[in-house]
Design a protein that fits this description.
The protein has 69 residues and is mostly beta strands. The chain has one domain. The chain is built from 1 helix and 7 strands, in the order E-H-E-E-E-E-E-E. The strands form 2 sheets. The chain has a 4-stranded antiparallel beta sheet. Strands 3-2-7 form a 3-stranded antiparallel beta sheet.
Length: 69
């Protein structure tokens, strides 16, 4: 299943990557393909802006993904 944070299911879901809860930083996740897309923060804990200086940078991480609704 694939979920998006801005969907009805996404608001209620929790996403785990390799057993770690990544729900707070998760933009979307796919438990069949085994990836989560997470917001990027710098060492100080601030969100990193993408090249257009409007969107927050995201990165895909691969591993064992579990989605709980």
């Amino acid at each position: 299943m694939r979920i998006h944070a801005d969907s009805y299911e996404g608001h209620k879901a929790n996403a785990y990557l390799n057993g770690k809860d990544v729900s707070a930083m998760c933009v979307q996740a796919d438990d069949e393909e085994g990836w989560v897309e997470l917001l990027v923060k710098d060492a100080a804990g601030n969100y990193v802006l993408a090249a257009n200086d409007e969107d927050i940078l995201t990165e895909k991480h691969y591993g064992e993904v579990v989605i709980e609704l």
